[in-house]
Amino acid sequence: MEMLSVKNLSISFGGLRAVDSFNITIQKGELYGLIGPNGAGKTTVFNLLTGVYKPDSGIIILDGENISGKSPIEINKAGIARTFQNIRLFKNLTVLDNVKTGLHNQYKYSTLAGILRLPSYYKTEKLMTEKAYEILKVFDLDKEANTLSANLPYGKQRKLEIARALATNPKLLLLDEPAAGMNPAETEELMKTITLIREKFGVTILLIEHDMKLVAGICEKIFVLNFGMELANGLPQDVLNNPEVIKAYLGE
Amino acid sequence: MKKDVMKVNLSKDTKYNLITIAAIIVAYIVCQIMIAAGMMSYLMKGLLVPFCYYSILAVSLNLTVGILGELSLGQAGFMCIGAFASAFFSKCSVNLIPNAFIRFTLAILVGALAAAVFGVFIGIAVLRLRGDYLAIVTLAFGEIIKNVLNTIFVGYDSKGLHFSLKDAASLNLQEDGVLIINGPQGITGTPQDTNFTVSTLLLIITFIIVANLINSRSGRAIMAIRDNRIAAEAMGIDVTKFRILAFTITAALAGVAGVLYAHNISSLNATPKNFGYNMSIMILVFVVLGGIGNIRGSIIASVILTLLPEYLRFLQDYRMLIYAIVLIIMMIFNWNPTCIAWRKKYSLRNIFRKKTQGEV
Amino acid sequence: MSFLSYLIKGISLGSVYSIIALGYTMVYGIAKMLNFAHGDIIMVGGFVIYSLMSLAGLNPLISVLAAIVICTLLGVTIEGIAYRPLRKASSLAVLITAIGVSYFLQNVALLVYGSNPKSFTSVIKVPALKLAEVKLTITGETLVTIPLCIIIMVILNLFIKKSKIGRSMIAVSEDKDAAVLMGVNVNKTIAITFAIGSALAAVASALMFSTYPNLSPTSGAMPGIKAFVAAVFGGIGSIPGAMIGGILLGIIQILSSAYISTQLADAIVFLILILVLLIKPTGIMGKKLHEKV
Asked: Which residues of A touch C293 (CB under 8 A)?
């Protein structure tokens, strides 16, 4: 069953063609890797998929729904969540509140109910808090629930960002360099966590990474992007041994 | 274990808010006792209502500046709308609704609603703007409101409402006509319905509204927008809706302050002194010195900074000068990185900690 | 008075706004701060010229030069004492401090000169030009102001583009940290920016108070705000934008004052600003800022 189907996605900035005819099909529940040298256009692809940029051409279909050209808010409601290359946590909110903002569209009550403290406020807040703790537990962050997210060590901040994205109950989760800045031990743990959340939350995952150990370790399929264009796409053992791919990373 | 942690969370904020409300009530009671015992100077008595409406202005501005994270220099404009709309309503209905309590309550709603409408306008106007551009538009808005209300002539008679931008005569009012807004002379003879009790009550209500908003789903959304707009959008938060919401609530509460102000003076005019950008800036200074995002601090700062110039009267001409110098020094002391590090090092907490850990 | 004469009056006022706006836009573009006290430096310049001319009897040219020197020193001093310590702080903190500086300047002037408006004697001795055919009289002040504004803008543009200091200004405005790494002395660059801005403010004050001779401690505040509006109008950080914004604003203000109402002239100016920003959020010549996601 196809979760994501992208055809001919392209965008240019000024004279530079940042992404050129990007095509990908991701099956439900797949763990797909997106790799390529720096500046290849990987984050741009993410930005196109999440509506931060509007594509010049191409179609994006998520779980049967055409989401091309929609706004980031609509796309999140349709079922895509993401993390960012440079961590974008809500620095002045606690760990718990960061996850609760992720739950914004999952548990609702009106502003008026909040101000007047109607019963729906107490009922829904309780459910939100319980759900938030549930998610934090998976990432082993529940004990730091009341810590200001800015005070977390770097590795935990990255995990919190993933937790927050999962709170939005996505069908497709985009992770932008989740292991950036992590040491080997942390990366091991991240690999286990990503595999775990795929099972536990039933999400399809597309991740950008430079750490080849992680990519080779958990990705079921890999897409290689270079200069905005497809260089290779397929099973890890084929892609990672492809001489063109090796040349792109290491040079002549 | 988990349930206990959760309970602490919910009541820590509530406790803080209840203490603040209790403190306001206690202060109110103390003031009333002092008045009854004749212990309060005429000067102080006259400041009690201003304490309340300046506090309301500061708390509501903190919602936009501290919680939404946008600089608004137009608070005076919203206050002006609330003042004029409510004064207009009160004057017109003085015969229709002789019961002051009902009439004033309606006047408050009128003022709040009128200001809220403009809050929506502003929210929409600044949707695509950020930072200083947004600030200048809010300042421009405040000036426009003040200017227009200073130039307009409005009256009513048996034929209905009449407007003019020229003068009172061109309204062509009938014999039984009543002139309500007289250009630069504004509105005179507004019923003096404001008193300390009502003002304190409205301050408490304002505090509750803002505090409850912060500790709710909508409050988290607004703060998320402040901390990282792009991430907030990626979480499916409707940035437009919540920005407009923040501006509207800020405006409505500022309008309420305007209602209190208008019904506390005999003659209401839209002069640069009371509704110009200087007033907006003064409120901003209250918010900044009380702590951006700290609504309890806004109240404390408003009271102290309204009181201080009066107590510094003996310094007379040098008063505002000292005020300005103190402001500059306080800003540097609070925000300069070297000063902040110095403060952290020598803070009382650190001194105590060093003592218990043995001499360092 | 005819439409043409109003137009010229508007361009003249607009030229003064442009010169003030240049100071604002340079400081904003390079030091990334809103110098709320800029308008009050104009007021100080006006009082210096007034004191030297009317009270000490010095000739106009020396008075203006003295004002330029004093304002420049004042601007640099303010930057060093009040703004530099807060360079790493939030822009809101700097704005509030600038407001404090503004009140400080106004109150010092109030203490020294009192609140009664002073009558400023024009520094411009150029006689008015009478064009009988079109029934037009162009004041001497206007004859000096408009060309002077153009000259200043051209010189400033050349200075920024060609000189070493000018290029370091551009560097600091684009990326402060990178500029430091390239060996640019950021402190010196910003100080010079304030110096130029303040010098321009002094020139503007000479021109403005010569045309509108009402001088009091609060005389600088509103022109300062209007000039900031002009800078935003034209796109803050853009020198040609400051010029366009200033001139347009002057024209709008005078025409509104003449044909609609003096009272509402300010309101109309501000309303047009809001409308322009609604359509073009970064001002007429402003650059779109792309946030990296």
From this structure: 43, 47, 52, 84
Residue B219 lies in a domain: yes
Is A88-169 the same fold as A1-79+172-252? yes
Nearest Cα residue to A250 out of A222, A213, A219, A240: A240
Identify residue C165 by its one-letter amino acid code: I
Please answer whether residues A104 and A96 qualify as being in contact, where contact means their C-beta atoms are separated by less than 8 angstroms.
no
Pairwise CB contact (< 8 Å): A50 & B6: no
**Which amino acid would we find at residue B11?**
S
Output the domain CATH number for residue B238: 1.10.3470
Give domain limits for chain A: 1-79+172-252, 88-169
Q: Interface partners of C (3+ CB pairs, < 8 Å)?
A: A, B
Residues of B in contact with A92 (CB under 8 A): 223, 226-227, 293
Measure CA B14 to chain center: 22
Contacting C residues, span 146-165, partner chain B, CB-CB under 8 Å: none
Every domain of chain C and the residues it spans: 19-213
Spatial separation of the C-alpha atoms in residues B105 and B263, rounded to whole Å? 12
A85 neighbors A180 (Cβ within 8 angstroms):
yes
Residue-wise DSSP of B248-304: HHHHHHHHHHHHHHHTTSSEE---HHHHSHHHHHHHHHHHHHH-TT-HHHHHHHHHH
In a domain, B285, yes or no: yes
Which among B10, B212, B232 has the least Cβ separation from residue A115? Answer: B212
pLDDT tens across the length of chain B (360 residues): 445 455 555 567 888 899 999 999 999 999 999 999 988 888 889 999 999 999 999 999 999 999 999 989 999 999 999 999 999 999 888 888 888 899 999 999 999 999 999 999 999 989 888 777 888 899 999 999 999 998 888 887 777 778 877 777 777 777 777 778 888 888 888 888 899 999 999 999 999 999 999 999 999 999 999 999 999 999 999 999 999 999 999 999 999 999 999 999 989 999 888 898 889 988 988 998 888 889 999 999 999 988 887 777 776 667 778 778 888 888 888 878 788 777 777 766 666 665 555 444
pTM for this prediction: 0.90
Among the partner residues B65, B136, B320, nearest to C103 by beta-carbon distance:
B320
Of the candidates B151, B321, B337, which has its C-beta nearest C107's C-beta? B321
* Nearest CB to A76 within list B218, B219, B236: B236
Closest chain C C-alpha to A88 CA, distance in angstroms:
9
Domain count, chain B: 1
Is the CB of C293 inside 8 Å of chain A's CB atoms? Answer: yes
CA A134 to chain centroid, in Å, comes to 20
State which residues form the domain around B308.
Answer: 41-356
The B residues from 288 to 327 touching A (CB cutoff 8 Å) are 293
Architecture in CATH of A1-79+172-252: 3-Layer(aba) Sandwich (3.40)
* CA-based nearest residue in chain C for residue B283: C96
Q: What is the DSSP letter of B166?
A: S
Residues 6+ apart with CB under 8 A from A108: A124, B217
Q: DSSP labels for B87-136?
A: HHHHHHHTTT---HHHHHHHHHHHHHHHHHHHHHHHHHHTTT--HHHHHH
CATH superfamily of A88-169: P-loop containing nucleotide triphosphate hydrolases (3.40.50.300)
Burial label for B295, CB within 10 Å (0-12, 13-18, 19+), is buried
Angle between helices C186-211 and C3-31 (to 10 degrees): 160
B338 touches chain C (CB under 8 A): yes
Token output for A92? 């002045």
Domain assignment present for B124: yes
Measured between CA atoms, how close is C290 to chain A, in angstroms? 11
Instruction: Enumerate helices (H) and strands (E) in chain C, giving the number of each.
Output: 11, 4
| CA–CA gap between residue C124 and residue B82 (Å, rounded) | 47
